[in-house]
Amino acid sequence: MEFKDNIPIYLQIEQYLYRQIALGKMKAGEKIPSVRKLALGLTVNVNTVQRALQEMNTQGILYTKRGEGNFVTEDTELLSKTKQSLINNELDEFVQNMEKLGIKKDKLVSTLTEYLKDSEDHNE
């Protein structure tokens, strides 16, 4: 995982884990890898991973079973809201980037529709 310099690493780890959950790579009720395993895999400090997990515990996305580790919540409504939040964040970034390129909001739908049609034609 490549980390951006302008965003705290623990927040990027949270976003990474949210994506893993949203993509179904970590399912409701499933145990997530240990703090040490995550830190090793992401090549970050254990304390940084711990902070990300604490934040996710506070938000209710994860819960801890004493002596067993951290698990993804089984609250499907909360998981749906989390996924929708990720989608909204991606859309916000997309819209901002298009505005920087001079595409006004009223032209976004037609521009995206045209792009999707062209990419579909190329894939056939």
TrEMBL record:
GO terms for molecular function: DNA binding; DNA-binding transcription factor activity. The keyword Cell membrane does not apply. It comes from the Bacteria. Keywords: DNA-binding, Transcription, Transcription regulation. The keyword Kinase does not apply. Gene3D superfamilies: Winged helix-like DNA-binding domain superfamily/Winged helix DNA-binding domain. Residues 7-75 form the HTH gntR-type domain. CDD domains: WHTH_GntR. InterPro entries: Tscrpt_reg_HTH_GntR, WH-like_DNA-bd_sf, WH_DNA-bd_sf. This is GntR family transcriptional regulator. It comes from Lactobacillus amylovorus.
